[in-house]
Amino acid sequence: MSRSTRLTRAGLAVAASALLLSACTGPKASGPDPTGGPVGDVSAGPLRIAVISHGTPGDSFWNVVKNGAEAAGKELGVTVEYNSDGDPAGQAKLVDNAVAQRVGGLVVSMANPDALRESVSRAVRAGIPVVTVNSGEARSAEFGAITHIGQNEAVAGEAAGKRLKTEGKRKLLCVIHEAGNIGLNQRCEGAKQGFGEASNLQVDISNPTDAQARIKGALQSDPAIDAVLTLNSQVAGNTVSAISESGSKAQVSTFDLNADVVAAIKAGQVLFAVDQQQYLQGYLPVSFLKLYRDNANVVGGGRPVLTGPNLVDKSTVDTVGKYAERGTR
Length: 329
Hints:
This protein is an alpha/beta fold. The chain has 12 helices and 12 strands. It has helices spanning about 5-25, 60-75, 90-100, 115-125, 135-140, 155-165, 180-195, 210-220, 235-245, 260-265, 280-295, 315-325; strands spanning about 50-55, 80-85, 105-110, 130-135, 145-150, 170-175, 200, 225-230, 250-255, 270-275, 305-310, 310. Strands 2-1-3-4-5-11 form a 6-stranded parallel beta sheet, sandwiched between helices. The chain has a 6-stranded mixed beta sheet with strand order 7-6-8-9-10-12, with helices on both faces.
């Protein structure tokens, strides 16, 4: 064999090797994981995302989150499976089930981060990208989530407290409806920062009759309370009734918006609502996970993506209210 023939064959072998390598790194190959975790078969085929919240059955707030997630899934061709459990241990089991089923993405609210640590970490180790929403902002990156989407609870609480102070209120009662939910405590602490001294009242959202009775009792025990800040739209309704029954002159403000709160703002029964635009907390993580899987995009630059706070009162309720009626605010 001549020297020129040997060189030609060697060149062909190098070219073939280059073609083979380029085929391995083409569009169908798994790209690098920006979080440093493994990329496995969860990145192949149609995208399936599990959305797992700490919402209680029938909670109107979480129904809007679900609506947002399902709308994004329909628009983007992504299968979205929504489940919830108000018990932290039950929520952790739902996360474990999603990991076992090898979903392509996980969206999870972390009202009780410590209870979810192992389950969320297990998802990350399995190569499943995680986006946290609503609660658990401070622990999101620590657990390996690529992004957190929600409202900074302390900032929102402070905004509510400042608004109540501007309205001339002198004594504030902040009603916490879920024990162990760190986000709710952060809201009340923020309200104290913005308003001044305030007291907290613990009730159980799962027992609305008892919650209303406890709020009524607190108002009757201290007639000086002239402002009540609830942290949930359902509890706002209980508080409006409690004020009526007790003869109190306190005014209600609340976190979260629904059709009932819209009607109460229009009627002058609720002063304002802190709207965290929870539809976005369902819609955005599905779109972010789709972009992450298809284009390795990570949104937020290491900081949370904020969806609130946005205060809705009589001046803006007509515009926002029509969207609350259709289940998107």
